[in-house]
Amino acid sequence: MRSCALHQPPYILFLRNRLTLSTRMAQLLDGASKLGWVLLRAVVRFVFMFFNNCVAIPSYCLYLLLLQPLRIWDSYTFWHIEGVMFKWLLGMVSSWGWVAGYTVTEWGDDVRPISEEAAMVIVNHQSTGDVCTLMMCLQDKGTVVRKMMWLMDHVFKYTNFGLVSLIHGDFFIRQGKAHRDKQLVYLKDHLDKYYHSRDRKWIVLFPEGGFLRKRRETSQSFAKKHSLPHLTHVTLPRLGATHVILKTLSAQQENGSLGCETRTTNQTANKHKGLQWVIDVTIAYPKARPMDIQTWIFGYRPPTVTHVHYRMYPIKDVPVEAEALTDWLYQRFVEKEELLTYFYDKGSFPPLEGQKEAASRQMTLDPVWLCSIQFFAFASGYMWYSVLQYLYCCLF
Asked: What per-residue confidence (pLDDT) applies to 141?
């Protein structure tokens, strides 16, 4: 048989070679076609998002500039309108991922019933995509998005969304030992000035103080030196901002825990409820591959489901003294480590206490609403362009 194979007629070998070559060419053309489609889609998405930003962000700023007299006359209504437009802007960012098939599945406690109550939200931080994920999954949580305050790295101030966050009243924190003490003082002043006066409810922060890939080695070295837990999927959190937020926005009781109400002196001199909850949010990506902002913009990754786990803690159960709070916060991130280890092994989060199996919820966005806010953005952009062009012609 081997001898027959070696002495086959030349035309048989020729046909076999042609067939092999044709197969490889077909595979190559198919791969090139897919790559061409991915590149074309990425270019189209980028162009759309560029114009989306060009019409939406200036329109947001110009509307608020036009409403400045209302800010003086009725500050509450002004910030209500600003919050609605802020939610629309975050909805546009959510739509970029939604159209590409990037969705969110939620696990753990249902946080929707406390959407109107003040809460501090602590989140693990793996990449720039974490912010986009939160923008999406909080859209269906009542008024949370329009009344929330973000704590984010100061570099975000210089992005396309930086001006919007600055107007909204988010806080940009500068990392590093050289800036730490001053930044905490600035944070307290910021909370005193803006949190109650603008009717904020949820305040979102990333206590790890940086991305997982950048901080993991340093965190593990610190843990080894101080006999703390060795963490792989999260890093040890930093206390500073969390401590300042709890002390500033919550009432301290005699036992050192946090009460449910506090009286804060502000511009309106009204009585405000303090923080009611701490919400522990754990974000998990399939195969531990975080999504970044580039993925949201260009959409080159196949449709992906990001998983978000919630746990709620009443504020009265949270210690306020620095040492006790440090232990409490470390314990939360040890639990995050366990949750993520379980998720990467099983593909789901473990069930809550008292449940036999974990229940998940598919987070959904209304496509009609998404189309409506996009139409409003482009219509507003055209309107403001026409107005400014008319004024320019009148003046010059």
From this structure: 92
